[in-house]
């Protein structure tokens, strides 16, 4: 897996005095595709900043890229198969603010 960060991400972390990034999978439910009322769980990737590297559990894999520590939850890594797959962390503009986002990790359906 190749981990790539766009320009501005490092400055964004310095501005918020963050020590590392964390990529989690957020759980949600859907009943789409079936009229019988059975729901399925799905997980979508979410990037957040963290100020503490020490309290990360064993559910995360640690990566180092451009002097920034990134913790990725193991459930997200099931979608990134080969060495050529690229995970891109970038800044997204939302109205008058910016937020971190990720490309290259697909939603996981249980």
Give the fraction of residues assigned to helices.
Answer: 10-25%
What's the average pLDDT? 83
Largest sheet: 5 strands, mixed
Compute the separation of the termini in Å.
Answer: 23 Å
What is the class in the CATH system? Mainly Beta
What would you report as the Rg, rounded to the nearest angstrom? 15 Å
- The low-confidence runs, each spanning 5 or more residues with pLDDT under 50, are none
Q: What structural class results from the helix and strand content? A: mainly beta
Oligomerization state: single chain
At the fourth level of CATH, the homologous superfamily is: HesB-like domain
| Tally of structural domains | 1
Strand content: over 45%
Short structural description:
The chain is mainly β and 110 residues long.
Structure commentary:
By secondary structure, the chain is mainly beta. The protein has one domain (2-109): Hypothetical Protein Aq_1857, Chain: A (Sandwich), CATH 2.60.300.12. It is 10% helix and 51% strand. It has 2 helices and 8 strands; from the N terminus they run E-H-E-E-E-E-H-E-E-E. The strands form 2 sheets. The protein has a 5-stranded mixed β-sheet with strand order 4-5-2-3-8. It has a 3-stranded mixed β-sheet with strand order 1-6-7, with helices on one face. The two termini are 23 Å apart.
């Amino acid at each position: 897996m190749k981990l790539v960060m766009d320009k501005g991400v490092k400055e964004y972390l310095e501005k918020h005095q963050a020590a590392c990034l964390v990529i989690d999978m957020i759980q949600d439910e859907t009943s789409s595709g079936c009229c019988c009322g059975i729901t399925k769980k799905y997980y979508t990737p979410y990037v957040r900043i963290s100020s503490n590297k020490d309290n990360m559990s064993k559910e995360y894999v640690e990566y180092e890229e451009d002097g920034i520590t990134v913790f990725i939850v193991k459930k997200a890594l099931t979608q990134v198969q080969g060495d050529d797959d690229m995970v891109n962390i970038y800044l997204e503009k939302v109205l008058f603010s910016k937020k971190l986002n990720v490309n290259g990790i697909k939603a996981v359906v249980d």
